[in-house]
UniProtKB/TrEMBL annotation:
Belongs to the Pal lipoprotein family. Residues 51-166 form the OmpA-like domain. It is found in: Cell outer membrane. The Tol-Pal system is composed of five core proteins: the inner membrane proteins TolA, TolQ and TolR, the periplasmic protein TolB and the outer membrane protein Pal. They form a network linking the inner and outer membranes and the peptidoglycan layer. GO terms for biological process: cell division. This is Peptidoglycan-associated lipoprotein. It is a lipid-anchor. Its main location: membrane. SUPFAM superfamilies: OmpA-like (SSF103088). It comes from Caenibius tardaugens NBRC 16725. GO terms for cellular component: cell outer membrane. The keyword Lipoprotein applies.
Amino acid sequence: MRRKLATTVVVASAMALAACQSKAPDTLPPQPAGSTPPPDSAGPIPGSQADFLAQMSGRQVIYFDTDRYNIDSADIAALQAQAQWMQQYPNKRATIEGHSDERGTRDYNLALGERRANAAKNYLVSLGVDASRLSTVSYGKERPEALGSDESAWSRNRRAVTITID
């Protein structure tokens, strides 16, 4: 009798669990009204560092002659483009990194990198970018863009690079 009762309970439980299984709907319900479509993943987010790099197309870097830190005519166009982008996004801040080539002492190259970063910063400020939005840092010869000990590598390493801060 007990065995029959136990079997009946087990069978009844299995039937109850089988009845609780849900079946996936054939069609999904419609989207709620007023929902926004997912963002277009075709381009960078406006105002981001990726957007800055895309808009600058290499103009985020300006190059200098040996032992120089003056802004020349080629640099002016790049800095004007940077200033326009910065004015388009008034809440964005940027750091300007100053670099030098491998020649010279560490202290000399740090000072030269600082002068290059400050020259770029001062030019951006003269174009209307608020100075409080810009900071500078000098890496001297510690972070070369190009490895090598020839004029080609040295010319690529004498630079100021603008990096936006998200």
